[in-house]
Here is the input.
Amino acid sequence: MSELGRILKEARTSAGLSLAGMAKRTGYSRSHIGNVENGTRQATPDVVKAYEKALGEDLDRRSLLLGTLGILAAGPADDTAIAITHEITEGRSGLLTELQTSHATDRGIAALVGQDAAAVATLTQWTGRGNAVLRVNATGVLAKVPGGR
Here is the structure.
């Protein structure tokens, strides 16, 4: 199960909705939603927006924002960049493997990791390994590191 899928499932179940109930509210099929939640399908910004609309106040916006890496602009990019930077400095790629980050989030991360040689080295390694989303995100961040590392 992907981290974002887990967050979406938690939000749905916390709201007391079944897969069928969420499908009815979002317009996506029950199987599509189940596949997103269990990580078989990648969550798209449109799916996340549909959850947000369907759950309204029941949705934990901060968790969702962290899961979507700020691409929905549902909150401050600084929080997202900080969370991702924390993962990078610990050598974890979790959030960077979920969805492609925005330009603003990449800039925020680059500003935070630019002076940390170990974090830059980790990102450099990720440009050549991992899933395609991780490679693109790592490359995007490195392209924005001050001083062009």
Remarks:
- The mean pLDDT is 80.
- The first helix runs from residue 3 to 14.
- The chain has two domains: 3-59, 77-143.
